[in-house]
Amino acid sequence: MKTLTSIGPLNTVARTPETHPLTWRLRDDAQPVWLDEYQRKDGYAAARKALKDMAEADIVHEVKESGLKGRGGAGFPTGVKWSLMPADESIKTRYLLCNADEMEPNTWKDRLLMEQLPHLLIEGMLISARALKAYRGYIFLRGEYVDAAANLNRAIEEAKAAGLLGKNILGSGFDFELFVHTGAGRYICGEETALINSLEGRRANPRAKPPFPAAVGVWGKPTCVNNVESLCNVPAIIGNGVKWYHSLAREGSGDHGTKLMGFSGKVKNPGIWELPFGITAQELFEDYAGGMRDGYQLKCWQPGGAGTGFLLPEHLSASMHSAGIGKVGTRMGTGLALAVDHTVNMVSLLRNMEEFFARESCGWCTPCRDGLPWSVKMLRALERGQGSAEDIETLLGLVNFLGPGRTFCAHAPGAVEPLGSAIKYFRAEFEAGVAPGSAPRGAAVQIAGA
């Protein structure tokens, strides 16, 4: 995987603490930043401030006022989630979980942070645990992220040796233990309650809510689950303040701070960049990704992972923030975009995607368990030119039937969103897969049963 660590148009803009809170510490040689170097670059200064000078409620208030939203794709306000944890001081056992199960196709931003800046995540979790009064934390890590696991474990040992984890951290009286837990490789573990079940050693099925994890989480105790990038924002917010954090995003974006964004596909300069919310997709595509490679034309693009809808080239004028992408009909998602070139057949691309989503369904609810394999069956037939005349309408029916609010969790709605948008914009490619003179499948069943 090629990972670009420069943050600027074609690698010309310098990263600074004032403008790039997540990435300014990155090394040019892409090697991990270990404890000594991290501390030379103001590492753990925010943690010292939080543990020695701030009350737990003050930390929660700062994060809430910052407007930080979850960076895993859902975009729920982090401070609001924190405030849902019980205020009852008698509840001594609480947990902080880091959702590092980054299995969204075309997304690798958290991997960059964990491999190259492991102490940034640890510091973010330490401050967050203090705010939540959580004495123990777990980083639930995608099992294939072998280098990230090794780097995080080394960084945890460094922090323990320096008195930054463990008992009475920095003389504050606060105790916090942190562990890396590698998952068994299920996409559904990105859903926070499925992650909790897996951490407990159970099957990774989502749980019914309520109760929410803040009330009944891992091992029945209050639990907060946050994404890697979300937690990595916390030190800068505590260290520099809310007003500064708000100033990072472009005016009118509606979201605050910066975001790791990227472009992959047949672009000239694929990679990841830390950018302000409100930058246009056109800037991201042309100034950072360099546009399409010679000989390729942009056919369509996804703004934030495989679970977001396809957009057309004219939609590149949209701003990269939740409301901006929402205006053109889909979601910001993880912020890592995919460029689809003119040589790609959309039926084949969607068949590939839906095979992944069908395989990763936990099987807990009927629409997802049966609907996604059904979509794969029809897409395979259309890909071979053996589709039925009714297949396209049936696929659109599944898009509706598996949509938001109709399944147990958000897995199926995310799976069918790209399918619905692909049919909307490229219906002719699906119609080309209908076999000449084919009878509707329903009619064939009626004839057989007559």
Automatic annotation (TrEMBL):
It comes from Geopseudomonas aromaticivorans. One of its GO terms (molecular function) is oxidoreductase activity. Residues 347-392 form the NADH-ubiquinone oxidoreductase 51kDa subunit iron-sulphur binding domain. It comes from the Bacteria. Its cofactor is FMN; [4Fe-4S] cluster. NDH-1 shuttles electrons from NADH, via FMN and iron-sulfur (Fe-S) centers, to quinones in the respiratory chain. Keywords: 4Fe-4S, Flavoprotein, FMN, Iron, Iron-sulfur, Metal-binding, NAD, Oxidoreductase, Quinone, Translocase. Its EC number is 7.1.1.-. InterPro entries: NADH-UbQ_OxRdtase_51kDa_CS, NADH-UbQ_OxRdtase_suF, Nuo51_FMN-bd, Nuop51_4Fe4S-bd. Belongs to the complex I 51 kDa subunit family. The keyword ATP-binding does not apply. This is NADH-quinone oxidoreductase subunit F. It catalyses: a quinone + NADH + 5 H(+)(in) = a quinol + NAD(+) + 4 H(+)(out). Coiled coil: none annotated.
